[in-house]
Design a protein that fits this description.
The complex is a heterodimer of chains A (about 500) and B (about 500). Chain A is mainly α and about 500 residues long. Chain A is built from 18 helices and 2 strands. Helix content of chain A is about 70%, strand content about 5%. In chain A, strands 1-2 form a two-stranded antiparallel sheet. In chain A, strand 1 (about 60-65) and strand 2 (about 70-75) form a beta hairpin. The longest helix of chain A has about 35 residues, at about 325-360. In chain B, a hairpin with a 4-residue loop joins strand 1 and strand 2. The chains are: A mainly alpha (about 500), B mainly alpha (about 500).
Amino acid sequence: MPLLTLSIAFPLAGAALAALLPARMTRAPRAIALGSALLSAATLVATWARFDSGLGIQLVEEATWIPGLDVAWRVAVDGMSLALALLTVVLFVAGMAYGVGPRPMTRAAAALLLLLEGSTLAFFLAQDFFLFYVAFDVTLVAMYFLIALWGEEERRYAAIKFFLYTLIGSLPVLLGIIALSLEADANTFDMIRLAQEKPLAGAGLGASLVFLAFFVGFAIKTPIVPFHTWLPAAHVEAPTAGSVLLAGVLLKMGTYGLVRVNLQMLPDAFERYALPIALLGLVSAIYGALVALAQRDLKRLVAYTSINHMGYVVIGVAAAAAAGVSARGRELAIDGAVLQMVAHGIVTGALFFIAGFVAARAGTRDLDRLSGLMRPMPVYGTLTAVAFFASLGLPGLAQFPAELQIFLGTFDVWPAVAGLALLGIIVTAALFLLALQRAFLGETEERWLRLPDLGARELVALVPLIALAVALGVYPRLALDIIESSAWLVGASP
Amino acid sequence: MMTVPEAKAMEERMIADLPWLAPSGALVLVAVVAVVLAVILPRRRQGVVAGWVAGGHVVAAALAGWVWLDRGFEAVMEGTLRVDGLSLALTGLLGVAGAVTVGLARPALAGTDREGEFYAVLTATSLAGVMLGAAADIALLAISLALLGLGSFVMTGYLRASTRSNEASLKYYIYGTVAGAMMAYGLSWWFGLGGSTALDTIGRNLPNAPVGALVASTALVVVGLGYKAALVPFHFWTPDVYDGAPLPVAAYLSVLPKIAGLVALARVLPLALPDDAAGWSTAIAVVAAATMTVGNLAALPQRNVVRLLAYSSIAQSGYLVMGVAALAASDQGLPALVYYAIAYAATNLAAFAVVVAVQRERGSVDLAAFRGLGRVHPWWTAALVVSFLSLLGLPPLSGFVGKLEVFTAAIDAGQAWLAAFAVVNTVISLYYYLRVIGPAVLPGEDSPPHEPIPAARTGGVLAAALGVCAVATVGLGVVAGPFLDLANQATALVAR
């Protein structure tokens, strides 16, 4: 059975179905959304069962599409793809359980969420550049509408900014794709072949320009400082589930592309620019942490910590590409980077839910105005504390093993970079502990005393993410067993 | 002098060539019968003429397919006409697009004075476009261009009572005449330098001409065709004419003469100046860059959606002509032009169809008229979103595959700078395309309270035309394979 194709087809078919429903069926859109997302999740779990972590890319499904250009429907998984696809379905199920826009979920909301899910999965599973690019841009359109329709006050501005930045990023990627496919022996969009052939070997001017085109596109998406300015606006103005998906899943497209294309297809050029890129990642990590430290708005704070955490991913990928790295260090760095993508997706998804829940109750996310929330909302407070600790990298929670691996791998080649990156961890620890102290502990103000604790819908969305954050922290092999097959990403043949 | 037996043999050859001219012949017949029908039928039955002309266009397109499959490619009429992939693809495209234009025009024109004649003129204009794309002889080229201009001018001025329509028509006429005269002057130089009216003979002699004369005469020829294709700096007529003309005519002008002009450019330049003589590729590439930039920048402040689409179509000409700029150095140039032309025709007609529908119901084409469209007309809005995103070039829509093709051609031809230029332009264009989509889809707190807008009868014809174009806009992109194959085969030009 073409499981991967089905995992993409279920959400897309669900989107079409939801869009065409008659208006009077008010409960159906949510049922369709959750049903399609769960079916998609089931196919991916079945894929996991068939997945052989000893191999690189595998379970290829192929069908002709545009033979003249050697474009085909090619989907396949390696460790990185499967891990991120699983992350995608987890966060989408959580996001749909919570919902966006008016309740019950409207047809448009269900259709857009499913379109976003289908295209995101297509992006992570694609092994054809045409499909890869189509998926990249369709996620952009779906997310634009999600922000513009159901975001907060400045949603129009944030949505256009998001569209503009992502388009500016995606078009150089398109030029890069064209250049790569023209360079291949027989022009092709087959990413597996391009990864093996590496048509632009060496680090000459052509390879450097193509590398730069891809890098700019993925750097905007990740985002890496100085390409990050779209992120706070989009994350803060998006509806809660939109922010969860944006930070939890869509940011990973940037680092995924960095590994899939820059690292895998242009390794020589990456090797040449590895140190500058690691330094950009370092700047992102420290800058993101420092700016987050200065925030009073919880959602904005979480948004900036994303820049910090994605900075570690970039450092890890760059370390894996560096010239002087040992085989062991390279493995640690790349596996850590992929694990960090997954861990950050889960933890930041939880954090954006947390910020959304308090805003929906108290009407504010201002850490200076909130106080003593732990007393009226013990469940919420406890889950928040766990998520905060996970995000600051406490051992036993999801991000610790990931960051540890990245630092170990980086230390192998650039000890100074690894050392400086640790500063970021100290700052994030400080800012989360401060936030916890300001808003959750201490005296509870009169007006916050009667805030209700989490309801069923909120628990269904949040608890699984917290549970996963704990599970990955205690037993990181859960994800590493999949991810470690990504050794093929750094040059080993599949 | 030709002897009698020679003349006799030539006549026989020309008669034997007639099957290749079946599409053009069909259009002539359609136009003649349309005139007769328009005269004898009473005003309320003029819809018959519309049906006849629309059907005739489709038949012409089908005949083009028949010639392609059954007869093959041939240089006919003593080499003055090239019936090959390029011209047959153009014929098919003009046939379908012409029929769609009739569908757009019929609801607006029904019951007006001289409705039937309009359709007859439209057919003659389509015929001129077909000829322009096939002409391999400078005399035929000049005649086709003049006929194309004449028909467009009459259709633009159809609303005789409207001063704006008259002004637009006059503007089009004056610009067109001057551009046509300049081209005729340039062609006369070519005739002198090349020693023949046949383009392939010219192509053997012209490259040896003095460089000054060569460049000057070529520039003059490009003026005439560039004017039809709305290339910068010959684009000034476009916004005023689109805005003043009846909307369906604007839709027609944005597609048919433009594509015919570009196809003629793609045929004439390599024939008359083989091997990139005088470096025309680079000159066209510069024109492409200027065209897309001027079109996009001028579109930014527009609040009138027709003017916005006019500038957008100038920008699109810039992307289209990238295919012409690349064709000397890359065999991907011509297929890119053909595919993008098909995709652009579907997309732009879909966009115009929505504007026609909105104008019929709300009486305005201002941006404000599109506010809240999504609530009242979800299907129109879907077509609007799809067509504008396709013009922007988002996948998987046909506009994206078109851009993919022209970018590939440009990079392959060593004009990566032009592709980068086009990318920057695409980003600029996002702003004005979203300016129309945004208010249409998003419920706005800034928009005036919704006055209940009566869902007017749009007419099934208009809905059908809109449906065809919107489906084609998506379908040509998602199922691009067969159309790209067709575009590739269309490059099998006949040489003589």
